[in-house]
Amino acid sequence: MAISSKRTTNTFITALINPRQWRLLDMITAFFFFLVAIFFFMAFTHYGDSLAASGRNTLLRSSDPRHRLRLVSAIESGELRGGGVSLDACSAEEVDHMPCEDPRVNRFLSREMNFYRERHCPRHIDTPLCLIPPPKGYRIPVRWPESLHKIWHDNMPHNKIADRKGHQGWMKREGQHFIFPGGGTMFPDGAEQYIEKLAQYIPIREGALRTVLDMGCGIQFALERGIPAFVAMLGTRRLPFPAFGFDVVHCSRCLIPFTGYNATYFIEVDRLLRPGGYLVISGPPVQWAKQEKEWSDLQAVASALCYELIVVDGNTAIWKKPAGNMCQPHQNEFGLELCADSDDASQAWYFKLKRCVTRTSSVKGEYAIGEIPKWPERLNAAPSRSSVMDNGVNLYEADNKRWIRRVMHYKKSLHIKLGTPAVRNVMDMNALFGGFAAALISDPVWVMNVVPAEKASTLDVIYDRGLIGLYHDWCEPFSTYPRTYDLLHVTNIESLVIDPASGERRCSLVDLMVEMDRILRPEGTVIVRDTPEVIEKVARISEAVRWKATIYNKEPESHAQEKILVATKTFWKQ
Which sequence ranges are marked TM in the entry (predicted)? Predict the structure, then answer.
């Protein structure tokens, strides 16, 4: 009995002295069931979706660099996939924004040699992750070839240019359009008559000349019209083109001080001009009032480099560059000297201008006018100045055949609108030899062939076959206005953001695809070829940039482990 009495007493005493412990246990149990109820409520009602969307939107709109990194990671991994989540639109003020040519930033830089007008790109971490909106009233551009003569005014409503140039017949406002009658400052009777005048002195129609660099062409309007163009400033760096790539360099009132800075700009033009090519300058300083000294200096520099003065017709001067390697700079007041044979004349990505003349002997092979085949034969003739052989296999010929098959597959099986008026401005973002562009040569398109700056340089091959292109690093924005391309094509997209030496990622696919969206027109097309794993990642990012994407199998003849993603940029408005 004593024992039993003790147990009873202990139980009674415990119940009297610990009532809080029971209440605490009840509270914990109740809170647990409350959380379970909240979980089911959020999981199976629209309130949960709204709360999740609110969190995602907070991440999307945050300007905190740490949130930006989290957002990029979430998009690439697919955490934000589904539910209609997409990147926000940038401010309406950014409709014509070019990140590397931003006057709000560049106006604080040095004006010496136009440094402030060159590329000065922001870090990705310092830029908002948003999509450039179209301007108010934007329409799908006028189709080629009608676009050559008129464009929609609201697509680029820059009336001041029309007001200044209207009397010259260059462009005029006419209702809802800007029209281009064909005139210009230096050719008031029209560009056709001007070209006819040049044809009296230059073999324009004989197939010998194909690639032309027109300096100062009025880029934004040119691209909207369907004419190849690119933003670049001749300042402190080489232009992003290979040595001896252009058959003709043309300047119509471009106002470049060719003889300034010890003729540095003329030397750069000489690097770009193919031996046997032609230099045409119309306007100042050619026989121009009050510019007698500049005109005299220009003739002196050209003479020092053995350029043959073909004609001076009014305010137009035409020179022919010597085809051989015999010219040594003569005694001159500019101190012109030849570069060393070891100079890499085609190194041109963020490369400072040199004040020495490029030796033709520094570039091996036959590439002078008269040595390379005429157009169109040069398109498929293997260029001699670049190695295209690997263990007995002609990589150039194999590449050409591969792209003929691929383009046929794009048109017939994937129903991409190549060869129709819907596609005019095309870019190949990883061009190699330009095989994709060559396979499109019968279509009414032009192709900007981009050779990534961190990869082997094959841009000289592209120019030797009569195509055009430039160097670019895809971890930076491209130098063009928003909405300038109808179709973007890229093979091995992930290689564009990977360092080829270390294998480390240099930037993100999200940043690259946001930039692709900036330069792509609404309802434009993107074609991506890569491994199935990369294509899945690209498809996830496509949702965030508001593209409608479909994944296809490769063409039957291909042995590569790859898929093809075809996406359309939706035409959204703010």
Answer: 24-44
Q: How confident is the model at residue 15 (pLDDT cuts 50, 70, 90)?
A: very low
Quote the CA–CA distance of 170 and 185 in Å, as a whole number.
Answer: 8
CA distances from 26 to 16, 32, 38, 55, 307 (A): 17, 10, 18, 33, 98
At 118 the three-state DSSP class reads: coil
Q: Single out the residue of 176, 142, 178 nearest to residue 160, CA to CA.
A: 178
258/393 Cα distance (integer angstroms): 45
Which residue, 396, 408, 393, is CA-closest to 435?
396
Residue partners of 247: CB distance under 8 A and separation at least 6: 208, 209, 210, 211, 212, 274, 277, 278, 369
Give the count of beta carbons closer than 10 Å to the beta carbon of residue 359: 17
From the centroid of its chain, how far is CA 284?
31
Global pTM value? 0.88
8 Å CB contact between 159 and 179: no
Burial pattern 303-334, b for ≥16 Cβ within 10 A else e, equals ebbbbeebeeeebbbbbbbebeeebebeeeeb
> 30-73 pLDDT, tens per residue?
555 555 555 444 445 554 444 444 444 445 555 577 889 999 99
99-157: pLDDT as tens digits: 999 999 999 999 999 999 999 999 988 999 999 999 999 999 999 999 999 999 999 99
The C-alpha atoms of residue 459 and residue 246 are separated, in whole angstroms, by 12
- Contact between 316 and 197 under an 8 Å Cβ cutoff? The reply is yes
